[in-house]
Specification:
Blueprint (H helix, E strand, L loop, with lengths): L1 H19 L2 H16 L9 H22 L9 H8 L1 H18 L5 H23 L3 H4 L3 H18 L7 H25 L9 H5 L1 H25 L3 H19 L10 H8 L9
Helix pairs in contact: 2-3, 2-8, 3-4, 3-5, 6-8, 8-9, 9-11, 9-12, 11-12
Length: 282
């Protein structure tokens, strides 16, 4: 049985580092982008270039964010930040290579998608500048959770739907619901962090844990009821599957709100892993 333990250790070792690199988040974003392109009947054209670009963009944003965290006067001391600090030279080379691949992909995507991507990149750039360079840093971070959720959703769903000539109403509803699930994910993480960090700037600390707990309950209620509404009124079987998936994602996210998953930040990889539920829709 020793070899089984060794295999389990190796798998755990690489999965943990993949999570530190947010590869699970990038994979979830890539898969979801493909789902958005396939709506409403499941037969939409999934462009390889835009799908690859979404994954590259999400990965790059998370890596750059942590590399910038490490350059703060008081760096954040977490395993993932230490990992990024240790391998910063390699990560910078990887980012440069991915940027080159991304530039090549631009030749295969619609111009509307490019303009939207430029706009989102501009907004992210402004946000990072304000957070890391100005005196508004502390108070501005109160808006981190909703801002990241909006940018994340617009990058995944907006870039997909803008390239579709006639967008079905189901697609627009799913985009909003996915944004709410993304916000639920970030707010849940903030809620867990507030138990370990008494001072700081996040919505959980600003609103208080009880208020955030109520907001999380309202979010899952809104998502589930809205998803069931789509399920009832849609005429597309693929939209039925998508509605069920989003509802299950939100419910599973809510079920993570328990102390047992707080140790070793298990809630992070479990919460990010929920976005991989969309894999069965591909």
């Amino acid at each position: 049985m020793t070899w089984l333990k060794n295999v389990a250790f190796i798998i755990s070792y690489y999965l943990k580092r993949a999570h530190w690199l947010s590869l699970d988040v990038a994979a979830g974003a890539t898969i979801t982008h493909g789902v958005a392109l396939r709506l409403p009947d499941g037969h939409g054209n999934v462009g390889w270039a835009s799908t690859l670009l979404v994954g590259i963009a999400v990965f790059a944003i998370y890596v750059v964010d942590r590399l910038l965290d490490n350059r703060k006067p008081t760096p954040i001391d977490t395993p993932r930040h230490r990992f990024h600090a240790r391998y910063e030279p390699i990560l910078l080379k990887v980012l440069a290579g991915l940027a080159f691949v991304g530039l090549i992909c631009l030749f295969w995507i619609p111009s509307k998608m490019i303009f939207l991507g430029i706009g989102l990149a501009f907004l992210v750039g402004i946000y990072l500048f304000v957070v890391f360079k100005t005196s508004l840093t502390d108070s501005f971070q109160l808006f981190k959770e909703p801002f990241v959720a909006i940018i994340y959703t617009a990058g995944i769903w907006g870039t997909a739907l803008i390239s579709i000539p006639n967008t079905a109403w189901e697609s627009n509803v799913f985009m909003v619901l996915f944004g709410l699930v993304a916000f639920q994910n970030l707010l849940l993480f903030s809620w867990f962090e507030s138990f370990d960090i008494e001072e700081g700037y996040s919505l959980a600390i600003a609103w208080g844990t009880e208020t955030v707990s109520q907001v999380l309950t309202w979010l899952v209620t809104i998502v589930v009821i809205s998803a069931l509404g789509v399920l009832v009124f849609t005429s597309y079987r693929y939209c039925v599957r998508t509605a069920l998936t989003i509802a299950v994602m939100s419910v599973c996210m809510h079920l993570l709100k328990r102390p047992s998953v707080q140790a070793d930040e298990r809630y992070r990889w479990m919460g990010d892993g929920i976005f991989l539920f969309t894999l069965w829709l591909i």
